Amino acid sequence: MSPRDIFFIRFLLAYVCIWFFEQRRLWANNLKDEFLFMLLGVTGGSLYFMLSNTALEYTQASNAALLGCTAPILTIFLSRLLLKDEKLSRYVWLGSILAIVGVAFVVFNGQFALQVSPLGDVLVLLSALSWALYIILLKRLGNRYPTLFITRKVFFYGILTLLPLFLHTPLNINLGLLKTPVVLGSLLYLGIIASLCCFFLWNTAVKKLGAVRTGNYIYLSPLVTMVASVLIMNEVITITALVGTVLILASVALAERR
Known about the structure:
about 260 residues, mainly alpha, about 75% helix, about 0% strand, globular
């Protein structure tokens, strides 16, 4: 299955499921907000996932993991430009620098193998910028609309803006493949857990904590991946990765200070 096929199925599953919880209203209060919701679906949905998935075809996974964690820093810059109410202390900046160093330690896990791949690396940075824009837009809409409504809109416009891509390469859903337990289980996980539940939780966090503070928790993603790789894939953690873990945890704690 292509990245587009997987993205379409996971967002469609999430959109269908969320209707069981949010179905009271269809549209935003005005056309401007409806347009912002469409941008949410693009920046946090179709554009973000297509950029990040396509990038992996041209660059290393380690490059993608490291450069993808620039999203919080980009969020800081955008919040200064677009969100005048976001107060940023020096701890946020120090925490961001510390986190990038920690992420690099964890990602490479003692085996430094960074290779510059211009096209792929640029695509990863663009995907990080797309997610940063998503967080900023989410902050603007979060105080005026329920989180479930916002999340449903993200799924709807994410699907809608992906459809033109299928004019070039049609959607390919192999029904026989979907009968395979591991494939069906993976898609259900991506749709219900990684999309519906996680987007709802993330959107709630942005509403309560703000764009910058929530964005800083992205730095924990490589740490969680490392722990999962040990438990599931029996990978080995080096001293370098442990140092990176300490730096990441310290950076998040530092960014939480006022």
